[in-house]
Amino acid sequence: MSEMVAKLDDYGRPAWIAVMIAGFILFWPIGLAVLGYLIWSGRMTCGRSNNSPSRWQSRFADKFEKARSRVEDEVKGFSGSYSSGNRAFDDYRDATLKRLEQEEREFREFLARLRQAKDKSEFDAFMSERRERPQTPPGATPATDQPQV
Questions:
Q1: How far apart are CA 79 and CA 82, in angstroms?
Q2: Helix or strand or coil: residue 4?
Q3: What is the 3-state secondary structure (H, E, C) of 59-108?
Q4: Other residues' Cβ atoms within 10 Å of the Cβ of residue 24
Q5: pLDDT tens digits along 47-92
Q6: What are the Cα distances from residue 90, in Å, to 79, 95, 104?
């Protein structure tokens, strides 16, 4: 029974509401018992008086922290701190990763130079187009190609 309560707490308030509704549908005293348990245990309160997180929020935070640390451990394994047990392979992997990081840096620098050149050519085209345009005095309306009627 306590395992089921813990599982429902992990899913949160919507799971408890679903169980209560199912209890009312199947046999109304079950739904009433679940409702009474929810009120008695404080699982249906709108807020905590001491501003502490609810039990399921704490459990979710714990699970999230465990998952985050597991992902960090996996990332550390790819960054070279993990040893495969084969020194030659580890050296080869480290050299390859360093080479790939260097190539990535060079490629990003190339893309930055390419963007800068493209921006410069667009700006130069804009400026030359602007210089070729006839200047109109301030307050005057620009001339149009259509005759005025």
A1: 7
A2: helix
A3: HHHHHHHHHHHHHHHHHHHHCCCCCCCCHHHHHHHHHHHHHHHHHHHHHH
A4: 15
A5: 555 455 566 667 777 888 888 788 777 666 555 556 778 889 989 9
A6: 11, 9, 21
